Amino acid sequence: MADFRIAEIFSSINGEGPRQGQLALFIRMQGCNLDCSYCDTQWANGENARFHWTSTKEIMDLIRQMQIRNITLTGGEPLCQEDIMELLLALAAEPWIRVEIETNGSVFLEPFARIQNAPSFNMDYKLPGSGMERKMLPENFRFLSEKDAVKFVVKDYADLLRCRDLIREYDLTEKCRVFMNPVYGEMDPEEMVSFMKDHHLNDVTLQLQIHKVIWDSEMRGV
Q: Of 105, 100, 107, nearest to 166 (Cα)?
């Protein structure tokens, strides 16, 4: 049975995404293949970041013990973990839970979308302000459905324009849920609302990270 590099496991509410405000169990995996300019989990991403090895069985036992239905795999980038398919298949075999993967848009999603009772994807497509758009795989949009979501984290006006163009080019609001989030402390949400009105961004949801409103923005495990 496989072991995974786990930075932390904690219960809280979803701070963002389709199930914002709902109780969730977070499994944060160590390591990421990107280096975004505004990353707020650098402490979990580096090669030397602290982690503990945790097996599929230990994770499944904890989920059954906690009795929390929403499970969020996050990181870092969870889909970069070796043997991640083993864990996803184990999770898919439990029909009472709902699994969401927070993925950064750089990992090919097709193998994971084929899983019976597949997890939902909350794909964080990186805009130019992140410095990582060159690593994105737009072909991943093909594997998204109404149970999935695309999140665009917006740093500046150029990001807003790129976000608008991607939504229109790939007809994203007809495929899945679409969220725009401001980079915390950098992008003015009011400017984003004005942009949405000016460019008729129907069916796009502006979302703030409520965990950074409830708790200190630097606090972990929330």
A: 105
